């Protein structure tokens, strides 16, 4: 079930990505609507991170092409932001929270220019949005996992981009951070931004996203959440893994019988 | 006056190396600096064979090229032959250095370009090699001019490219996503390391270069959590090390480069034990009341 939209913000055409000549993503063909919260969902090793990295041209594609805002990626870099996985950087790096958030402004500054007051203000505002303004001068090695994630989010916000790619922003964060992040994502959607999130938790996916991409090396489905999160498509995505399947069953049962009735 | 020239040479080398070393250790590439400082040897020899002179410019170009080739080969073996990064470093630089040694022994045996000079240098001879113009004006030691120029160049690169170098060291994936070329800054950094190595090898030798590339930055890393302070501190540590090292050598009547490298190690040990933020001594003390 692959649904295409008119005037997409992201258009992926026949994208194949390989590591060491072994394909990890096969012929991905999808379009995403503007102003939506998109979840990329699939089992471990399904190529979820690979997909967003390939869309951003951080990984070379073996074939296919990507257009964002109907332009090649190189022309719209400034409108794109990225929140990498938290573990991808060294948090013992000698930098403060503010230093990291200010990096969000670097792309717009251009070569040789130093951050000006407007940039510093933007960075500070971004920190306020994630509730971390009190930590501006804190050394990044002293942050908890959830705080690190908020700092990465603030850096992306400081950039004031139009489309955001986020790699597992909910992985290993506390519940307060998770709620804060999803609130923030919804506000961004209201402002007409598009947010594409790699996500591994099926339970919350149906509440968080309005568009879902189901991926397992091949594209299983791409469409509005309620049409995509069906038993049949989830089974196709997760294959015959029993534990996962029973989880999927749980999830669907919950949908069929709301919690209130279950208690009686 | 000789003491002044020697200390100035040491300080200039320390400044270049410490600044670049900060980026290398944070990128977990300190040993790449080690590799480059050795692997530039064939470049130097080939440049010498082509021009027949020991002028700085051809040697800098030769060594710069070899430095970039070295980093490229390390990447290549690591990525395509799927050898571990450290193994790839080990095989690349020993091989290139060995080729350089053979080239020296076969072709350049009759000049004062030998293995000892490359490895240990002789900083004590710096004041003897003066830059004297045709009308007999002396502008001081030749090395000081080369090193001074390289130091200014490196400071300029770091000041102008501060934010790009900072970001590509911390989070290359994000840098690439927002349109900052990680490979341009990577190879720029490696070219700067090659330049520093070749400008300093004659006077201080490859071993002191490695000591200065890793020692002062690692010491500064233990003393501060702010990157700009780390850059400044590592330069200060490098300069103090050169001064103390010189007088240690003077007092012992021993090798100056060796004494400077020794002081580098001692400075690191002191920071390791007594750093107010990361030091073992204070960590222990902090734990006791808790």
TrEMBL record, chain A:
GO terms for molecular function: ATP binding; ATP hydrolysis activity. Gene3D superfamilies: P-loop containing nucleotide triphosphate hydrolases. It comes from the Bacteria. It comes from Pontibacter burrus. Pfam families: ABC_tran (PF00005). Residues 10-242 form the ABC transporter domain. Coiled coil: none annotated. PANTHER family: IRON TRANSPORT SYSTEM ATP-BINDING PROTEIN HI_0361-RELATED (PTHR42734:SF5), METAL TRANSPORT SYSTEM ATP-BINDING PROTEIN TM_0124-RELATED (PTHR42734). This is Metal ABC transporter ATP-binding protein. Keywords: ATP-binding, Nucleotide-binding, Transport. Belongs to the ABC transporter superfamily.
From TrEMBL, chain B:
The keyword Cell membrane applies. GO terms for cellular component: ATP-binding cassette (ABC) transporter complex. Coiled coil: none annotated. It comes from the Bacteria. The keyword Amino-acid biosynthesis does not apply. Keywords: Cell membrane, Membrane, Transmembrane, Transmembrane helix, Transport. InterPro entries: ABC_BtuC-like (IPR037294), ABC_TroCD (IPR001626). It is found in: Cell membrane. It is a multi-pass membrane protein. The chain crosses the membrane at residues 6-26, 33-51, 57-77, 89-109, 144-162, 174-198, 204-223, 230-250, 256-275. GO terms for biological process: response to zinc ion; transmembrane transport. Belongs to the ABC-3 integral membrane protein family. This is Metal ABC transporter permease. It comes from Pontibacter burrus.
């Amino acid at each position: 079930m692959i649904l295409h939209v008119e005037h997409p913000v992201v258009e992926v055409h026949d994208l194949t990505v390989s590591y060491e000549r072994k394909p990890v993503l096969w012929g991905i063909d999808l379009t995403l609507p503007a102003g939506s919260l998109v979840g990329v969902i699939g089992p471990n090793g399904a190529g979820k991170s690979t997909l967003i990295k390939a869309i951003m041209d951080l990984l070379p594609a073996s074939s296919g092409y990507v257009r964002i805002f109907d332009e090649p990626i190189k022309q719209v870099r400034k409108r794109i932001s990225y929140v990498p996985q938290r573990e991808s950087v060294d948090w013992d790096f000698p930098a403060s929270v503010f230093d990291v958030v200010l990096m969000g402004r670097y792309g717009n500054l251009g070569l040789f220019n130093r951050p000006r007051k407007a940039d510093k203000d933007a960075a500070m505002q971004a920190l306020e949005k994630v509730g971390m303004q009190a930590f501006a001068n804190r050394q990044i090695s002293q942050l908890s996992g959830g705080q690190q994630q908020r700092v990465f989010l603030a850096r992306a916000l400081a950039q004031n981009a139009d489309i955001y790619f986020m790699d597992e922003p909910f992985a290993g964060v506390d519940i307060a951070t998770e709620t804060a992040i999803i609130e923030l994502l919804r506000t961004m959607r209201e402002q007409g931004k598009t947010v594409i999130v790699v996500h591994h938790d099926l339970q919350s996916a149906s509440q968080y996203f309005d568009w879902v991409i189901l991926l397992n090396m091949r594209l299983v489905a791409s469409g509005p959440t309620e049409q995509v999160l069906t038993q049949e498509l989830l089974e196709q995505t997760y294959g015959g893994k029993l534990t996962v399947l029973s989880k999927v069953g749980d999830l669907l049962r919950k949908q069929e019988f709301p919690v209130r009735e279950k208690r009686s | 006056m000789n003491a002044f020239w020697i200390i100035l040479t040491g300080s200039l080398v320390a400044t270049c190396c410490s600044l670049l070393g900060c980026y290398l250790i944070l990128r977990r590439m300190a040993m790449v600096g080690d590799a480059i400082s050795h692997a530039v040897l064939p470049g130097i020899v080939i440049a010498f064979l082509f021009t027949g002179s020991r002028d700085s410019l051809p040697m800098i170009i030769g060594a710069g090229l070899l430095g970039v080739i070295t980093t490229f080969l390390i990447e290549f073996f690591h990525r395509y032959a799927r050898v571990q990064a450290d193994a790839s470093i080990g095989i690349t630089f020993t091989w290139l250095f060995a080729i350089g040694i053979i080239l020296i022994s076969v072709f350049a045996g009759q000049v004062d370009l030998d293995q000892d000079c490359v490895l240990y240098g002789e900083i004590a001879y710096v004041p003897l090699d003066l830059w004297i113009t045709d009308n007999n004006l002396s502008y001081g030691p030749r090395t000081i001019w080369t090193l001074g120029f390289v130091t200014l160049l490196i400071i300029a690169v770091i000041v102008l490219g501060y934010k790009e170098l900072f970001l590509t060291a911390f989070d290359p994936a994000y840098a690439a996503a927002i349109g900052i070329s990680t490979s341009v800054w990577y190879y720029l950094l490696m070219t700067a390391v090659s330049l520093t190595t070749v400008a300093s090898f004659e006077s201080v030798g490859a071993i002191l270069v490695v000591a200065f590339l890793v020692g002062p930055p690692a010491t500064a890393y233990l003393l501060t959590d702010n990157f700009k302070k780390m850059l400044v501190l590592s330069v200060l540590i490098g300069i103090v090390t050169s001064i103390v090292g010189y007088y240690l050598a003077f007092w012992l009547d021993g090798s100056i480069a060796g004494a400077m490298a020794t002081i580098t190690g001692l400075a690191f040990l002191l920071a390791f034990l007594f750093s107010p933020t990361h030091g073992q001594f204070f960590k222990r003390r902090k734990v006791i009341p808790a």
